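Following the same procedure, backbone shapes were mapped to integers, yielding the entry below.
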Amino acid sequence: MRIERDYQQIVRLAGVRSAADMRRLFGNGWKTINQSQQAWVRNLLTVWGDHLGGEDFERGEINVIGRLMMRSEWSEQKGKQIEKIVTQLHCDGLRGEELYRKARDLLIPQSSSANIIALAKESDDACFMEMVMVKTFGRDNPIRNIARLRYCKRKSAQNIASSLIYHCSLTTKEARNRMEWAQDILEGEMYYAVKREMEKEILKIAA
């Protein structure tokens, strides 16, 4: 089963001794992001995980927020605006695609390049994120397996850390540290990679 392979791959994290060591082995340099940027990339990863996870369930607010953030020039103010509008519409009773379309119409001007991207389906968004993920980490990097477990299989950080403790005889602190280092790499790398690829897409549409 695929999930077993994900757990098998993350065993490679056990031999890493420091955050710098993990970045050297599995990252592409030292990238840091602030809390609002972290929230942005987590929302996008949720869109990716919801779709690739293959489960049939109603998409929630976070999924819609993530899809809209992919279509907006990112700023902390814009992120808060998206969250506020989506939350209000959700409270008004809108759900799923209806929630997404209404929020999109309120947030993205009809004349903008992003509006063309906004017509994309959730499956297109997930494919875009998968493309960025593979381009950034390749298919055999355990950081990608961490992402799959967290966002596609909905495993908690504690669950993944427990598997490291069980299979690799790590202490709780050692396992927790490796999870934190891996998460920092995942979010930092994906934030800048997604921004880069989104800018390319918008330039192609505007050309």
